[in-house]
């Protein structure tokens, strides 16, 4: 790796200095001949050596072959050990020339062998590519190259970076190059004054990668001035990071809170409003997740273009599926058991086992793969905090569901009837409300909401028959803590439990953190048995 | 002729025949050899164990096609302990005393194995245990065909050390296997000169799904200027969200590789592996291993299960080796009597699927090759390193002060699972 890097930079610097337009031709090296050395069974060391040779040509045309190697798309033909790029798994495969990218005939997959790589080879490739693409046309590629060099560049790279900085026009890319140059200076044996300047550049950059470089410098530097500068720089960065860590804990807490809110909000209706201890609530969530899986499978098979919309399509369907199952459960079982909480608990527990085993029989015991659409994958940075898109969308989604539910309960005739039945069943019946049907619809609504929670949870958790079990305890915890029968209580309860849990986790660890939260919750319930916000409900009358 | 009464009579006759058939089956009991299969088919562990039940049925079927064993047919007896640890013990008792099986293949989690141990001792039967485990155990009635820590964890750490890793995160699920393995690994790393501040140990509960804090802690730990790797003993369902979070937060295998001991082909079947390319796993078998034996095994598996998308994995190979060893031992002993088979098993050799010949050792563990694989985009592993020779399984770790002195040897004259080489007595370190 080091060899590859050194050669790449040395030659790159030489070519830059001489401003020779076609280095490969100038040196009389044929990159095509070098690429062919990947053919045949090679040791990893040999493969790395060939990468070094390719990088040493300084010829940008080898970048395609290197990239293909890194992505596992470089193959050699068993018969003559000729090397080709092959995209995809078509059989027979279309062969592409590794340098020009021109089609070079076809061959059956069985006659091709992939060039083996491993992590250290991938590193060597990205080093070599960074050296080759530092002056590419696309600023995004240059930015990427500069970023890679930050952790890799050493003394030999400085000249190449200097030349690239001089020619750079995009300020953001230039900044990255300067930071990478500073990192390279710190790894070289340049004079101390220059290094102290470089420390300042890194301190200004102020992220973990910079801290990484400064830490290894302060550990290795013998020069007291430089040592102090590096330590001061590292300390400054650490205090920034400490601040962002706190922010991050709060963010993670909100994110966990939103998951708890989603899982619990359906229960806030079935348990909170109706007073039914519904142990099958987790399975309603699970059904929603499986609905998402089925929708995605259908989309994959019939209309792959719609994949990014799969979650949107799954939402109403999941609501319907879980809602209908909830309706059936209420009509067939629960309505005979009102006022008998123990029997309800046992009966719904039985339902939960039946649903789990049913799904296991239908879909198999193994986890099902639910893909993340493009807009749900990846992360972006806010300061030093990385915010993942899936978590952000889940927070937004949880709040939207909460708002819609609040609207239904407070602003629709159905919500009015639900509240009426909850608060005084006999009076509501006397006013002409068909209370059994309101019960059924309320239960179906709670279950349906659990179903759409399942769509969201399928994005961050395993879609397996056990999905629901992991959430049922937490859901009850949130509802009881927030105050049975109050939606606002559920919101506040979920968010505060989430933030408390995530603030404890870095210090106490996940296991102990959870225990501490449970103990605190028990103490709280001792003090306020009705939770944060208490409200009268049927269970109070009963 | 075809009156209602005749029909009725026919029905009664049929019933009689059925009853006769049943007693006939009872009478025939002596003509088959029963093989117990004790794997969870429902509950949390069904995800892993159902496949093992299927592979056992396939192996028994195959043996019957070859003419059975000692001139008798093999008959599988499948029970479902439902991922419920005490139920494992009950079902084991049922298999041995009611169904009179000659041998049992089963268990996955260490806790289920611990729960059936007393039953196998009391009723003197044989258990083949196919999963990698924490070691520190050797019982007369149990044969361990999965890896001991020295056949999986230690070689994996050695590989990463060679790749220049200086800082270690030991991330595990909070139960006996990860805790014991991490204790061994921590001692091993310290013996190799890794300072305590370069080792971070963290545990999470079973089924943990919110990995944000843990992954960002790993990123923090990795920014101290030294090459960092994660050794993961995270088990079961928690793996999928763990890897998803790693991918989402942009932790690449080239920066901080994760080497896992419980993630195989079956577990990867539930994830999109493109963002995970380059993360590692250490096993004694990978489906991608290119040998004629493995190719035949995979083909047979696909035919048996009727689905050529189903993957094969390490514990399946362990059952393949264990079953064939048992068959050879029974043939050697000429009987299925447990005592004679237990005595015959040490020294039995069986070609494994990766091109070597595994051997049952006197400590009831077997020799296995250790393979290090990198996850590729197809959900399979590319082997990047393997041990030159088969590694003999070591029941008692050499890296823990207490178990260092212990030796397991079930052949004469020692005949003991925890023989203290210092005091020359049987009975551990007490």
- The protein's oligomeric status is heterodimer
- CA-atom Rg of chain A in angstroms: 31 Å
Number of strands of chain A: 7
Q: Low-confidence segments of chain B, ≥5 residues, pLDDT <50?
A: 1-29
β-strand number of chain B:
19
CATH topology of one domain in chain B, what is it called? Rossmann fold
What is the level 1 CATH name of one domain in chain B?
Answer: Alpha Beta
Enumerate the strands of the largest sheet of chain A in spatial order, edge to edge or round the barrel: 2-1-5
Strand fraction of chain B: 15-25%
Number of H- or I-type helical stretches of chain A: 22
- Structural class assignment of chain B: alpha/beta
Largest interface: A-B, 59 and 52 residues
- Which CATH first-tier class of the largest domain in chain A would you pick? Mainly Alpha
Fraction of residues in helix of chain A: 55-70%
CATH topology of the largest domain in chain A: ABC transporter involved in vitamin B12 uptake, BtuC
């Amino acid at each position: 790796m080091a060899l590859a890097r050194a050669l790449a930079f040395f030659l790159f610097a030489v070519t830059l200095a001489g401003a020779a337009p076609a280095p490969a031709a100038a040196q009389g090296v044929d990159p095509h001949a070098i690429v062919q050395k990947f053919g045949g069974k090679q040791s990893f060391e040999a493969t790395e050596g060939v990468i070094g040779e390719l990088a040493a040509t300084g010829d940008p045309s080898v970048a395609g072959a290197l990239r293909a190697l890194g992505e596992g798309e470089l193959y050699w033909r068993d018969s003559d050990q000729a090397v080709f790029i092959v995209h995809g798994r078509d059989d027979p495969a279309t062969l592409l020339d590794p340098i020009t990218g021109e089609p070079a005939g076809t061959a059956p997959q069985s006659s091709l062998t992939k060039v083996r790589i491993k992590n250290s080879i991938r590193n060597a490739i990205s080093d070599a590519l960074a050296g080759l693409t530092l002056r590419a046309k696309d600023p995004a590629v240059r930015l990427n190259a500069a970023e890679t060099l930050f952790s890799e560049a050493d003394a030999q790279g400085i000249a190449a970076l200097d030349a690239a900085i001089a020619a750079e026009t995009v300020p953001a890319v230039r900044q990255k190059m300067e930071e990478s140059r500073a990192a390279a200076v710190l790894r070289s044996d340049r004079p101390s004054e220059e290094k102290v300047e470089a420390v300042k550049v890194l301190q200004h950059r102020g992220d973990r990668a910079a801290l990484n470089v400064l830490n290894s410098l302060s550990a290795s530097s013998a020069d007291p001035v430089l040592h102090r500068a590096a330590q001061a720089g590292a300390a400054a960065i650490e205090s920034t990071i400490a601040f962002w860590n706190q922010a991050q804990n709060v963010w993670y807490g909100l994110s966990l809170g939103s998951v708890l809110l989603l899982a619990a909000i359906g229960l806030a209706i079935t348990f909170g409003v109706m007073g039914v201890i519904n142990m099958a609530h987790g399975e309603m969530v699970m059904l929603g997740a499986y609905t998402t899986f089925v929708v995605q499978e259908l989309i994959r098979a019939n209309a792959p273009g719609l994949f990014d919309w799969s979650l949107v399509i799954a939402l109403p369907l999941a609501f319907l599926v879980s809602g209908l199952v909830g309706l059936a459960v209420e009509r067939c079982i629960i309505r005979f058991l009102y006022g008998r909480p123990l029997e309800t608990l046992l009966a719904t527990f039985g339902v939960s086992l039946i649903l789990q085993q049913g799904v296991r029989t239908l879909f198999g015991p193994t986890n099902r793969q639910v893909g993340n659409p493009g807009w749900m994958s990846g992360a972006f940075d806010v300061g030093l905090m990385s915010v993942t898109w899936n978590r952000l969308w889940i927070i937004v989604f949880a709040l939207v569901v909460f708002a819609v539910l609040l609207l239904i309960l407070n602003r629709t005739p159905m919500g009015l009837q639900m509240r009426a039945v909850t608060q005084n069943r006999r009076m509501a019946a006397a006013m002409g409300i068909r209370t059994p049907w309101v019960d059924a619809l309320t239960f179906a609504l709670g279950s349906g909401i659990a179903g759409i929670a399942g769509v969201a949870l399928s994005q961050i958790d395993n879609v397996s028959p056990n999905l629901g079990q992991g959430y049922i305890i937490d859901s009850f915890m949130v509802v009881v803590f927030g105050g049975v029968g109050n939606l606002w209580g559920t919101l506040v309860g979920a968010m505060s439990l989430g933030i408390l849990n995530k603030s404890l986790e870095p210090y106490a660890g996940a296991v102990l953190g959870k225990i501490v939260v449970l103990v605190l919750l028990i103490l709280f319930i001792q003090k306020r048995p009705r939770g944060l916000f208490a409200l009268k409900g049927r269970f109070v009358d009963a | 002729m075809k009156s209602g009464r005749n029909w009725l009579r026919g029905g009664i006759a049929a019933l009689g025949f059925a009853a006769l058939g049943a007693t006939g089956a009872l009478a025939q009991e002596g003509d088959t050899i029963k093989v117990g299969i004790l794997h969870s088919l429902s509950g949390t562990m069904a995800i892993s164990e159902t496949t093992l039940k299927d592979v056992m049925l396939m192996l028994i079927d195959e043996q019957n096609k070859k003419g059975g064993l000692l001139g008798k047919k093999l008959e599988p007896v499948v029970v479902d302990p439902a991922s419920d640890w005490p139920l494992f013990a009950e079902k084991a008792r049922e298999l041995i005393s009611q169904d009179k099986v000659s041998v049992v293949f089963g268990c996955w989690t260490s806790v289920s194995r611990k729960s059936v141990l007393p039953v196998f001792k009391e009723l003197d039967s044989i258990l083949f245990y196919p999963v990698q485990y924490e070691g520190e155990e050797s019982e007369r009635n149990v044969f361990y065909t999965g890896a001991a820590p020295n056949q999986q964890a230690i070689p994996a750490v050695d590989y990463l050390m060679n790749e220049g890793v200086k800082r270690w995160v030991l991330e595990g699920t909070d139960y006996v296997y990860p805790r014991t393995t991490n204790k061994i690994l921590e001692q091993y790393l310290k013996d190799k000169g890794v300072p305590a501040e370069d080792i971070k140990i963290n545990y999470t509960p079973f089924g943990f799904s919110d990995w944000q804090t843990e992954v960002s802690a790993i990123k923090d730990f990795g920014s101290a200027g030294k090459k960092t790797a994660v050794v993961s003993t995270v088990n079961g369902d928690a793996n999928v969200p763990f890897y998803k979070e790693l991918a989402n937060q942009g932790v690449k295998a080239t920066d901080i590789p994760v080497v896992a001991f419980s993630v195989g082909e079956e577990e990867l079947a539930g994830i999109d592996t493109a963002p995970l390319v380059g993360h590692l796993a250490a096993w004694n078998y990978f489906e991608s291993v290119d040998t004629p034996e493995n190719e035949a095994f995979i083909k047979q598996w696909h035919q048996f299960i009727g689905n050529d998308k189903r993957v094969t994995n390490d514990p399946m190979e362990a059952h393949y080796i264990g079953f064939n060893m048992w068959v050879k031992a029974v043939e050697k002993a000429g009987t299925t009597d447990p005592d004679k088979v237990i005595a015959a098993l040490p020294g039995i050799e069986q070609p494994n699927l990766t091109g070597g010949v595994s051997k049952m050792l006197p400590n009831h563990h077997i020799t296995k090759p250790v393979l290090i694989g990198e996850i590729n985009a197809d959900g399979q592993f590319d082997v990047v390193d393997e041990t030159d020779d088969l590694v003999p399984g070591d029941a008692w770790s050499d890296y823990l002060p207490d178990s260092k002195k212990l030796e397991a040897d079930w052949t004469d004259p020692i005949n003991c699972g925890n023989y203290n080489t210092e005091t020359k007595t049987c009975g551990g370190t007490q």
